[in-house]
Amino acid sequence: MSEMVADDGLEIHARISDAFSDKSTIHLAEFPKELKSQPIALVTFHGLNVSQNPVHNVIWNAFAQTNDAAPVNCVLRPSEYLYPVPKPKQNYERLVPHGIWKRNWVKKHLEDIPAVAVIFCDLDFRASNWPERRDTCVSMVHCLKVALTGRETRIAVVLIQQTASIPVTGVGSEDALTTERVATLCSLCNVSHKSLFVVPQDKDHVKEYAARIQAALFEMSQAYYQVAARNVKAHRLYQQAYGNLLKLRLVDANCHEIKTVAGFLNYKCCQLLFKSNLPRDAILQFKKHVEMFSRKVGPLAIAFQHQTWMSQQFQLFAELFEQAIRNGLPAVQTQHPGFYYQSAAHHVAVRRKEARKLCSALPVDEETVAGMNLLLDPEETMPYWGQRPWRAGRSLLDPDPATEIAGFNAMQHREATVGVKYSEQIIALLAAAMTQFKSYLSSRMKRHLMVQTAEEFAALSDWPKSLATVNHVIWDYRREKWWSLVSPLLRRAIAFSYRTASRADFIRALIEFLGPKFSTEHKKRPDVVDELHKCLGDAMDGRGPKLKLFDCGGLNEVEERAVANSWVEVMGKACWDAPVVLDMTPISGLWEVRSHFEKSSYALDDMVRVLVHVRLHSPKPANLESVSVSLTPGADRTLTKSRENEDAANFSFSSGESRTFAFAFFAEPGEVGQVLRLKEVKLRIVGKTSIGHSGMTGYPAIVDLTWNLDPESSQGLGVASERDVFESFRFSNSGLEGHCPTSFKLAAITPHEAQLTVIAEHSAPALLGEWYPIVIKIVNDEPCDATSAMLTFGIDAAEGFSDLSVRMSIGHPKLEITSMGKEQSELDLSLEDRDDKNEEETPEAVSDTNAELGLTHVEPFALGTIPGNGGTCEVKIFAKLSKIDEIKFLAQVTYDVKCRRNIPAVLPSQDRRNLLQQPAIVDCSCTTSAVVKTRAVKALETTMTPISLKMESVSKLFVNEPCLLLLNVVNTCPWDVIVKRTKLNLDLALFEGESEDIVEEEDEQIRNLVLAPGEKASECRYAVPLKPITPRAFASSDGPATPAMASYIVHWNRASEENVPSGVMIVPLPCPAVIECPLWLKLLSPSHGYLRSSISIAYMFKNRLDSVLDLSITVEASDAFMFSGQSQVKMRLMPKDETKLHYNLFSLLAGEVALPKLKVECPGIPAYNPVFEALLYRSIPSKIFVMPKGKSTSESGLTPDSDRKVSCLIDSSAS
Fold it and tell me: How many CA atoms lie within 13 A of 67 on its CB side?
């Protein structure tokens, strides 16, 4: 219905718009077309013989083409053309005016008197007969000037040349000759050299020359019109002329002339204001104009002429307004051309009313009519605009009363007999208005105008268009529930459909008119029902409905007889065997229908029930032939109950009675998961067959009333809500009490309700990075076996965990199960059997799936057949989480089971037979699931602390200075954790690690160690920085971010799950600051000495800088030793150079004694002194152990060959 009505509305609007496009239907009386056209400079061409001279024809075609840069109106005229002779100037003080605006004044200046007159002459500057041809050209110019005597028209001369070259003044006899001849010709013709042009005969160049000449002619024409505007001062400003016009005394004799001229001037004023982008001023000017003259009706005998003028004013302004909008002027919903087109149509309607009132009684004898025609014949040739034909040029003189009355009678006779198409004019103007209201989204105004358009179609006896227009408006008003507006329109629709003998439209209108929304008089309702039954073929007389209840006047006897004959023909057609389908979706009419499902969802083995409630609003009993309901989607299903197959009493309704029809069926297996919708409800009404008028057999109507219930197709119909339509719906006669139960327009077909239980067993919380074990136990409580059982396990993405990364596997080291036809029996591989290169990867025996988005899940796992009545199945699943968060897993089991459908014992026999035709046992696919909730926590925390060789914590390291890394592993989870082994992978570009001979020993510091919750394990690793490093967390202009100094890898397991693959934790260790010192210092000394014996030591110094380093070295005396060597030394170390200082110590005390204190200073750079002091503290031992001398001890002193070696580096910026 919606598509049909919308298409009809578009077709109606298109037809109306086509009528408007025909400008002949809009009467613009007494308005010069010159005012509406764009004025273009007039240029006349003389001397071209285009019919006999091909060269002249080519030249004319080149000039006749439109040139946007220089727009001129080129007109070809003969040389002997006679121009209007200007009148001699008179003394205007004594002049008696005969009128205001001459009819030919504007036309004369735009189409007759040229701004520029051009003479074309075949004259070549190098022609041998130059004198004769020159004289001919001069004679043509002279004749043209005589014809234009008294005019300011510019004269131009164009010489047609043999060649394309343009003569230019220069040195040489030929150029001098051309210059001389040009000057002579200009002198004889009395024209300026700027008005002399040449054009070649060559076709290839003539267009280029024509464009240049046309631009020059445009400039000359502009100069002409500027001079003319200065000469005619009174008409220079339209606004000033309009003001002067208002000063005239207005009487009935000159009223029409003043209004006509005022309309011209107002039009030009508004046009110029719109072009100047002053729309408010234009609208204000027009409103003042209409307010000024709207009451100046003039003679009342011809008041219709005033309405014609008013309509013309509104229409002209609307056209100006519309053109301005096309040129870019913005408009608003409250101010646009549609209002002015509407006012123009209103004044045409008033004109029709006035004409019918004034022109009703006129003499029709031939002599009188001939006299009237004589009075109006010279109207088109009147010299002034707006004057009466019977007193042309005498508008200011007192008119003759008898002549005036005769003239008015003649105008009335012409208005009555000329056949003015009032309705067509109104329809065209309303169409233009509707187009504007539609553009500015004023739909209600558009509908109001459509009602007026329907009335005008009716005035033209175009009943089909009237009916289509009214039906479209009814549809809109019905959608917005404006019942008070729908009621009178329904009366029109009934009348129009009666006149068109449209049986379907007539039935639809009567059915809606009998609905509860319209206050039809109680006494008339039975008669309206009788008319409806006549259309249906019940108790008809073969003549069709009479319809005396509604206003169907306006038909004469002939038209009434034609309508009656049309109804007789319609009632006798045998084509009524095909049912007439009427869409009742948006209509609250004679029959009310409500339909719904009994429940919102049905299992596959449940019986689906649809209830259809029908109520009759007729004051008389009525019968239904059948009731059917259609459902969708999938294969369309239509359920029908008819009088033939059911109890006929159920299809007979008394006045106001309501009944409920129940439909039952079983859903198909393919419809599981779909949502059933009620698509359509259909009531079929069949009339009775009887013998018609004159023995003609009448054919009863078969009418299908349909209610479209599909929400997609009914979108935008504005169907009334059920609470509104059925607010008083009761089911007292159907056995139901109270209001209608809750309705369900949709019903979901769900699978068979699963009786299989899924139980998940696990130990929460899960540890980050471990293979977390989850045991899924499945118990089958179905009365039969569950076949083709499949398990799907994954993250419940609907709960918002789709951004987690989870790796899962089904299997157990000691469990063998089949997944997708492949054996998984390799899960007993231990981590120790794998290569170190792949020790951080998931073992090959574990098939896993890693997904970042959506449902991360393992592939469906085949469980096979699970026995019924308590049979069980158990599966163990391992999941690895990579993010600390709360998480929900979804364990879902799908299986197939055979279900038996139950048919209720209390069911109508016909419904029971229909249900027994469907299979009693159906294969059902069921799904059940369980949610596994857990949270992931960290199993271990690791920390790293750099320390010096003296086991002191340090904040920065030094290049080539050995250090220790203290690594701690803490159990932070609530379970016992086994740390199987650890490994430190240093970045070899930044640090150097242990030598190969001690790696195995160091690597076994933590191995297979069980940590209880909160316990910590520690180990130390050796490292040597290789280059300076400035820690930088993020990349910047100074450089990239600092990489990690090493990766600390920890292999671990939950203590209760030792047989699953180990979890691997890889921790990047942040790099501390590493600085470089300018001096490298070594101490060569033995590990110990003996009392009263010599100990040899040596200090090695190396300059790490690229510049010379001056040092001052001092060795202070000690009470524990006597030493030989330089106590104060000043040395200069070249870049990258090194040196040694040797000292012999003689021990005086036994035990751990202090060595002589070494002091290093840099006199040139005092900032290095604290750096060197820190270097001595770190790298030089402050004490040495001196043992007492035994009897077997060698007397010889110790040499530095068995010394231990220590080296330190310090950065020059350490100060």
Answer: 23
Q: How far apart are CA 562 and CA 627, in angstroms?
A: 38
Please confirm whether the linkage preceding 399 is cis (ω < 30° from 0): no
> Taking 60 as the threshold, does the pLDDT of residue 727 lie above it?
no
Enumerate residues 6+ apart whose C-beta is below 8 A from 1196.
Answer: 1093, 1094
CA distance 1078 to 803: 52
The answer to whether 794 and 857 are in contact (CB under 8 A) is yes
* Domains: count for the chain: 7
Contact 883, 850 (CB under 8 A): no
**Domain of residue 158, CATH code:** 3.40.50
Domain of residue 1110 covers 1079-1187
What b-and-e string marks burial along 143-161, b requiring 16 or more CB atoms within 10 Å of the CB? ebbebbeebebbbbbbbbb
Q: Using the 8-state DSSP alphabet, how is residue 384 labeled?
A: B
Report residue 653 as tokens: 């309704």
What span, in angstroms and rounded, lies between the C-alpha atoms of 492 and 456?
13
Q: Distance between CA atoms of 932 and 881, rounded to whole angstroms?
A: 14
In a shared domain, residues 808 and 674: no
Q: How does pLDDT run across 127-155, given as a tens digit for each residue?
A: 888 888 888 888 888 988 888 888 888 89
Q: Which residues of 1057-1092 are buried (b: 16+ CB within 10 A; e: fewer)?
A: beebbbbbbebebebbbbbbbbbbbbbbbbeebbbe
Handedness of CA 1159, 1163, 1167, 1168 (dihedral sign): negative
Q: Is 928 helix (H, G, I), strand (E, B) or coil?
A: strand
- Residues of 349-387 as b/e, b for ≥16 C-beta within 10 angstroms? bbbbebbeebbeebeeeeeebeebeebbeeeeebebbbb
- Reported as a single tens digit per residue, the pLDDT across 471-497 is 889 888 888 888 888 888 888 888 888
Instruction: Enter the pTM of the model.
Output: 0.61
pLDDT digits (tens, 9 = 90+) for 954-998: 888 888 888 889 999 999 999 899 998 888 888 888 888 875 544
Dihedral, 204, 205, 206, 208 alpha carbons, nearest 10: 130
In angstroms, the CA 467 to CA 493 distance is: 6
Domain match, 157 and 207 both: yes
Burial class (CB in 10 A: 0-12, 13-18, 19+), 521: exposed
* Bridge partners, residue 159, by sequence: 121, 198
Rg, the chain, Cα only: 56
Q: Give me the DSSP letters along 127-167.
A: -TTHHHHHHHHHHHHHHHHHHTTT---EEEEEEEESSSPPP
Q: Do 764 and 746 fall into the same domain? A: no
Report the CATH number that the domain containing residue 953 is assigned in CATH: 2.60.40.10
